[in-house]
Amino acid sequence: MQNRKKLRLLSGCLLITASTLAMPASAIVIRHDRAPEQYLASKEDFPPLVTFYNIGVHGTLIAPEWILTAAHTVFCLNPGQPVQVGDELVKVQARYSYPSYQLGEQNDLALIKLAKPVLSVQPARLYRQQDERDQVLWFIGSGGTGNGLTGETVGYKENNGVLRKAQNKVIAVTNSDLRFVFESDQQALELEGVSGNGDSGGPAYLKKDDGYYLLGVSSRVDSWFKDVGEYGVKELYTRVSSHASWIDQVMAADDTARAKLSSADGFLPEGMTAENLPGICASLSLKAKP
Description:
By secondary structure, the chain is mainly beta. It contains four helices and 21 strands. It is globular and about 55 Å long. The N and C termini lie far apart (48 Å).
């Protein structure tokens, strides 16, 4: 069996034909021995949450004109593409991915510049300390769901975009990533859970007296013999504190310098091409509610 190190978006699972697009996507996967209602969330649980596509996939507002997300989510985030921040639909102006990122690997991070500032939502703060190990953080996302015994069982269509949140503990850190594992029974937190396909780019965060802090960005699964959402699966979130200097540099630079500091690659998942990408992005695009 191949290594189960895969992107959490939906990207490694894209099945594209000439007429259909099937994207298995799910949100927070929960404990089997807790009531599902305990995991339900709302925008007020993490106001800086940004949603990119009608199947989910997220980022975090970190400044009025800037979103931080995973690089592997940006394939449709072209200029003019709308994203949802709070109750606003705002268009993308540009994207800037970490310069050394390769699809499926570490340093899975990108910045999205918005065409206009969002003033209705307080941005999250970047976590800059190096003490993440053993901290209990929150995840949040939309899509389908499931539990640790079964893995993902309910798709995003059935779930219809309901938000869920869950807790998890940082068990290890590297220069690039925060590592989590989905525990069960006595080892688990009260609302233990993991993110799933469709939650890529979403936050691992803390709420403090002075606001929300972003510690990690949902990237990928790193487990042998474990499917996404099963007990024992290992999750990797890109570590914000290790990349804060790059984030600061890109946001402070002019357009010419930003191009030198970043990658313009769209990181197209398997099955996507320059020819079919416009149609795929149109099918995923968020629309204003009537």
